[in-house]
Specification:
The chain is of the alpha/beta class. The chain contains eleven helices and eight strands. It has one domain: Alpha-Beta Barrel (TIM Barrel), CATH 3.20.20.80.
C-alpha cells in the first residue's frame, strides 16, 4: 500500500476501530438526514473497454516529484496497465487539528503531478487522481478515518477541505483526467451528508469528468455513507480478512470472497453505481490474508509470503474480473523500490504476483504449470 515512512504508510491503509475515546462524534452511526436531489447520472452497464485496469502510484517529495517518479510511468505501461492512479497528499497535524494543508516539502507539486499525468497519457493510459489526507504527528491510534475537528466545528473543517479538493479538481480539469476521487477513507466525516453533497457540487463546478469517493473496506454501506447518489462511481478498498491464518489454501480465500461479494453486490444494486476498487493489494508477508491492511504485522520477506500474496492476487482476479458492475480495479502499488525477494511490502514488482498481474493485464490465463501447482494452490510448506 504505501511505502515511504511508517507515518506515511499508516495514513494510507491502516484500519482501526473508530472510537476516539473522548471525541465521540454524535451522529457517527449513519448519514445525517439532510438530503438534496442527486446530481449524478445513474449507472450504465460497464463494458470491458470502459473498465479501468491499472496500478496506483503514490507521489511524495515536493518539487523533485517528477524527477523521482517519471521512470515508473513506462514501467506501468509495460506491465500492460491501461490506467494509472496518482495518489497525492495533504497533511494535518493530527486527527483533532484544523490545519489541513499542502506541504511544499512532502506533497507533490502541481507542475510535477501535471507532467506525470500527461506522460501517462502519452503512454496510452487513462488517469485517476486521488487526493488523500495524512497526519504528520498522529496521536495514539489515529489516522485519517478518525478526523474530528476542534469543538466539532465541521463547517470550518469542510471549508478547509473544499479548498484542498478544489486545488486538485483544477489540476484534474486542466489535464483532462478521466476520474477524480473527492476523498478517501474519511470515516468520521462521512455522516455529514449535506457537507459532502455541497463539496461534491463545488467540485463539479470546476471539474467536468467523473467523480468517485474511496470508502474504507468495511464502511461503504448506505447506513454509513449517504451521498453515493451524487457520485458517478463507488470506490472502495479491499483489505478484508480472507483467511483464518497465514499461508491459506486458495479454496478458503475463494470461499470468503464469495461471501463478501454477495454483500457488496447487494449494496451495488441498492446504490445503482458501478464499483471501482481503488486499492487492491496485499503485502508479500505471511499472514497478509488475515489482515490485509496491517503492513507491519510480519515484516519478513519469505518465499511463503510471496506465495501468499500471489494466492490473494489470483483469488481476487477469479472473483471480480468478469463482474460487469465493476468499473475498475486498481492494484496497490507500483513504487520506487526494487521489489523482489527481499521486499515484503505491497508492490508486486519482481515477485510471483507480478507474473499473474502481467497475464491479467494481457487478458491471458495463468500458465498451465500453475494450474497443476500445489505450491500455488496451497501455500503451506
Amino acid at each position: 500500500m504505501r511505502i515511504a515512512s511508517r507515518v506515511i504508510l499508516a495514513g494510507c491503509c491502516v484500519w482501526a476501530a473508530w472510537a476516539v475515546g473522548s471525541v465521540e462524534d454524535p451522529g457517527a452511526d449513519g448519514p445525517r438526514a439532510e438530503e438534496t436531489p442527486s446530481r449524478a447520472t445513474p449507472m450504465r452497464p460497464v463494458s470491458k473497454a470502459d473498465q479501468f485496469r491499472g496500478m496506483a502510484i503514490q507521489l511524495h517529495g515536493g518539487r523533485e516529484t517528477f524527477d523521482r517518479y517519471h521512470k515508473l510511468i513506462p514501467e506501468v505501461a509495460e506491465l500492460g496497465a491501461d490506467t494509472v492512479m496518482f495518489v497525492v497528499y495533504g497533511w494535518q497535524s493530527h486527527a483533532g487539528s484544523l490545519d489541513l494543508h499542502v506541504d511544499p516539502y512532502r506533497s507533490a507539486d502541481d507542475a510535477s503531478v501535471g507532467k506525470l499525468m500527461d506522460l501517462a497519457a502519452v503512454h496510452g493510459m487513462r488517469r485517476i487522481l486521488m487526493p488523500v489526507i495524512l497526519l504528520k504527528a498522529p496521536r495514539t491510534g489515529e489516522w485519517r478515518g478518525k478526523i474530528v475537528p476542534p469543538a466539532r466545528d465541521w463547517d470550518a473543517w469542510f471549508d478547509r477541505y473544499r479548498q484542498f479538493i478544489a486545488k486538485y479538481a483544477r489540476l484534474a480539469e486542466k489535464h483532462n483526467v478521466e476520474l477524480l476521487m473527492v476523498g478517501s477513507e474519511l470515516i468520521r466525516t462521512e455522516p455529514h451528508t449535506k457537507q459532502w453533497r455541497d463539496t461534491i457540487a463545488s467540485v463539479r463546478e470546476i471539474y467536468h469528468g467523473s467523480l468517485g469517493y474511496s470508502a474504507n473496506w468495511d464502511h461503504y454501506q448506505t447506513t454509513k455513507i449517504g451521498f453515493w447518489d451524487d457520485l458517478d462511481v463507488v470506490g472502495m478498498t479491499s483489505y478484508y480478512q480472507l483467511a483464518a491464518k497465514a499461508k491459506p489454501r486458495i479454496e478458503e480465500v475463494n470461499r470468503n470472497w464469495a461471501k463478501i461479494k454477495k454483500e457488496i453486490m447487494a449494496f451495488q444494486r441498492e446504490v445503482d453505481r458501478p464499483i471501482i476498487f481503488t486499492e487492491v493489494g496485499w503485502c508479500s508477508q505471511e499472514g497478509a490474508a488475515r489482515q490485509g491492511w496491517n503492513y507491519f504485522a510480519n515484516e519478513r520477506a519469505t518465499p511463503a509470503g510471496q506465495r501468499e500474496q500471489a494466492v490473494l492476487y489470483e483469488s481476487f482476479m477469479k472473483t471480480w474480473t468478469d463482474e460487469p458492475a465493476v468499473k475498475g480495479i486498481i492494484w496497490w502499488e507500483w513504487d520506487l523500490s526494487e521489489g523482489g525477494a527481499s521486499n515484503y511490502g505491497y508492490t508486486p514488482k519482481g515477485k510471483l504476483a507480478e507474473t499473474y498481474l502481467r497475464l491479467w493485464f494481457q487478458n491471458k490465463p495463468r500458465p498451465a504449470t500453475a494450474e497443476r501447482s500445489t505450491v500455488l494452490r496451497d501455500s503451506g510448506e
